[in-house]
Every structure is written in C-alpha cells, then in structure tokens.
C-alpha cells in the first residue's frame, strides 16, 4: 500500500506520522497521480498547528507534481502518463499517490522538472497574483517593501519584480539571506534583526516611503509596516510566519494616511479553472524564458516531512523546499 503523512491531533511537527493509506481508483472528474515531488509551504504548518482548523484525522499538503496513473470518468483534458501539478484542492499532497480533481491540475510543460513544478506552483502563483492581479499592483519604477525576501515566495517575488522593473526593499534575518535575496534581484536588503526597517525604508526612499508593502510575516511586522507606507498606500498582509496579526482597529488606517489593507489568499485567485490555467501559463513561460529561476534549495524524503517543517519554522530554510516520495 502507498504511504502518506497524516496527523490525528494538532501540535508541533512531531504529530506528523508516516502511514499506509488506501487510495483506490479515481472517481468522476478525478485523476490518480503518482507524486514525484511535493511542495513544502508555510500554510502546511498552520494546518498542522491548528491555526487554520480542519477536521481530523487528516492528510496534509496542498502542492505536488507527478504522473497521471489513472483517469476517472468524464475527464477529457488529461490522459495516463501526463505530467501534472497542482497547488489547491483537497488537502493531502504529502503522499506517494493521490486522487485529485482534474480541474485543479495543470500540465507541466516540457523543460520544467517535477521538482521545479513542486517548488513554484503555490509560491509562484502567489507571486503572480501579488504582483499582477491585486486591486492595486506596482508599476515599473516603483519601489515596494517585501518581508522575508529570501523565503520561498520571497525569492520568486524578487525575480519577478526585477523582470517588471520594480525595485524591492527586502527584509531578511541574516547577512547570508541578504546576499541570496540580492542575488535573486532584490534591490536593497534590510537585516531586520539588526536594523530598524521603518527607518531604513525612509532612508532608502529619501523619505518618500513605499506605495505597497507585502507582509507574509504577520504579527511581528504588521504595525511597523504601516509606517513604511505612503499616504493611500496598500498593505498586503498575506501570511502569519510570526503569528496572526489579530484584531486591528481600522481607525489606525486613517491616522497613518488613509491606507488600504488587503488580506488575500491564493485560493481566491485561482478558484476558477481559467484563472488557474492562465496564471500557471504566465509563470511557466517566465521560467522557460529564464527570467525566473526556480530550483529546490532544500530536499527531504517525504517521510521526513516533520523535520522539513521544523527547519521551515526555525527560519533555517531559504527559497523553496521539496519533499521526495
Ligand atoms: N496568502 C497567500 O496566498 C499565501 C500563499 C503562499 C504563502 N503565503 C505566506 O507567505 C509567507 C511565506 O511563505 P513561504 O512558504 O515562502 O515561507 P518562507 O518565506 O520560505 O519562510 C518563512 C520566512 O519568514 C521569516 N520569518 C519571520 N519571522 C518568523 C518567525 N517568527 N518564524 C518563522 N519564520 C519567520 C523567515 O525569514 P527570515 O529568516 O528572513 O526572517 C522565514 O524563513 C508565509 O506567511 C505564508 O503563509 C501566503
């Protein structure tokens, strides 16, 4: 029988267990996929810890790439042997084999490996909507602030921004991460464990501050990030790596300059099939053109997913990480 990582109670990485699972045949509209690479994402830790509650016991993981092994009734777009990837839909990607809705899958083009696909579907499509599809997006010549610039989403963001002519001030926790972010197109780095990022943003921009802040760190950075925004600027709070922001008094937004705030999620931007397919095509085309380079910075055996999550939460990882079945 195939194996999967599952958890029966919420908690630390130790709750993740390597278990045998029954998979069976795909039903109507579904594919059975033999996974070749699984994406590690911060949201997986929120599911495991209970920050984002879900019914238990449960599988875990939202992103994988692999080969179609069997096709359910009514599926016309995919056939056995196709190389596919996905980043949303029913949870449980930390598995050797998975049944997944065909409408949530895209074909992986020639020239893109399974590992690359598993590195970029969730994090790259997140960057696609952050930089191209929010209600307000940066334009060429703008300078924006991005927290955790050397992370999985961060390194793709820095490269995509550079390709669009957008300058990025990226915050990171160490000198090594600062170099990595700069090597990936980040214009200015701020080591926020040593420097005050509000003061540095004011200094770098000559007092003008930035029109958009992208903040996946959450609790530790949200309030100070508001002080980095120009009047009528946009705060994009898209994650909780340091903990959730929690209830916030909206009058703060008027006091700090008639600011806007959005709290988006990828799932809201790829819910429709045509949105998913178009966004994935845009991402794959940029990677195939060499404008964005994607490769795993860390790989773990799938059965060692607990250690991978431990390293992610301890800020030991950089860029994207894959789990190998
Ligand atoms: N809303 C969406 O659609 C969406 C989609 C994908 C990801 N996200 C969010 O985007 C963020 C980045 O995701 P990712 O998978 O690419 O992770 P990641 O950036 O590779 O890892 C998280 C990084 O956050 C920084 N960080 C700051 N304070 C931290 C703390 N207290 N504990 C742990 N890390 C801390 C660390 O970088 P430094 O060491 O440089 O501080 C760490 O490496 C996460 O918040 C995730 O939930 C949101």
Topology:
Layout: E1 3-7, E2 17-20, E3 30-40, H1 42-49, E4 58-59, E5 64-71, E6 83-86, E7 97-101, E8 105-107, H2 114-132, E9 143-146, H3 152-163, E10 167-172, H4 175-183, E11 188-191, H5 197-204, E12 210-215, H6 222-226, E13 229-237, H7 251-255, E14 260-262, H8 273-288, E15 296-301, H9 305-313, E16 320-324
Parallel strand pairs: 9-10, 9-12, 10-11, 12-13, 13-14, 15-16
Antiparallel strand pairs: 1-2, 1-4, 3-5, 3-7, 3-16, 5-6, 6-8
The structure holds NADP nicotinamide-adenine-dinucleotide phosphate.
NADP nicotinamide-adenine-dinucleotide phosphate is lined by residues 41-43, 122-123, 126, 148, 150-154, 172-173, 177, 216-217, 220, 238-242, 264-266, 312-313, 315, 317.
Structural features, described:
The protein is an alpha/beta fold. It has 2 domains: 3-121 and 273-324, Alpha-Beta Complex (Quinone Oxidoreductase, Chain A, domain 1), CATH 3.90.180; 135-263, NAD(P)-binding Rossmann-like Domain (Rossmann fold), CATH 3.40.50.720. The protein is built from 9 helices and 16 strands. Helix 2 crosses helix 3 (152-163) and helix 2 (114-132) crosses helix 8. The longest helix has 19 residues, at 114-132. NADP nicotinamide-adenine-dinucleotide phosphate (NAP) is lined by residues 41-43, 122-123, 126, 148, 150-154, 172-173, 177, 216-217, 220, 238-242, 264-266, 312-313, 315, 317. The site of NADP nicotinamide-adenine-dinucleotide phosphate has 30 residues, from helix 1, helix 2, helix 3 and helix 9.
């Amino acid at each position: 029988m195939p194996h999967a990582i599952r958890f029966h109670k919420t908690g630390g990485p130790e709750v993740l267990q390597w278990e045998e699972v029954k998979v069976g045949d795909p039903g109507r509209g579904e594919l059975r996929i033999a996974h070749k690479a699984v994406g590690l994402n911060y949201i997986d830790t929120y599911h495991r810890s209970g920050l984002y509650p879900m019914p238990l016991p449960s599988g875990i993981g939202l992103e994988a790439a692999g080969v179609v092994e069997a096709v359910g009734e009514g599926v016309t777009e995919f056939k056995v042997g196709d190389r596919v990837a996905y980043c949303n839909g029913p949870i449980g990607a930390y598995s050797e084999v998975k049944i997944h809705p065909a409408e949530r899958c895209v074909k992986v083009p020639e020239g893109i490996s399974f590992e690359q696909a598993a590195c970029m579907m969730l994090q790259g499509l997140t960057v696609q909507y952050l930089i191209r599809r929010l209600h307000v997006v940066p334009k060429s010549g703008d300078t924006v602030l991005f927290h955790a610039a050397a992370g999985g989403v961060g390194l793709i963001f820095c490269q995509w921004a550079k390709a669009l002519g957008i300058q990025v001030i990226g915050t990171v926790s160490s000198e090594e991460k600062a170099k990595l972010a700069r090597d990936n197109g980040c214009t200015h780095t701020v080591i926020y464990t040593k420097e005050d990022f509000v003061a540095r943003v004011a200094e770098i921009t000559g007092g003008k501050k930035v029109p958009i802040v992208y903040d996946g760190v959450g609790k530790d950075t949200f309030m100070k990030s508001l002080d980095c925004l120009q009047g009528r600027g946009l705060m994009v709070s898209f994650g909780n790596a340091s903990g959730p922001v929690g209830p916030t008094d909206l009058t703060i937004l008027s006091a700090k300059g008639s600011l806007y705030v959005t709290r988006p999620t990828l799932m809201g931007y790829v819910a429709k099939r045509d949105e998913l397919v178009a966004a994935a095509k845009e991402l794959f085309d940029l990677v195939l053109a060499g404008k964005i380079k994607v490769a795993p910075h860390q790989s773990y055996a799938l059965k060692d997913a607990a250690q991978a999550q431990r390293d992610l939460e301890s800020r030991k990882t950089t860029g994207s990480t894959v789990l190998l079945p």
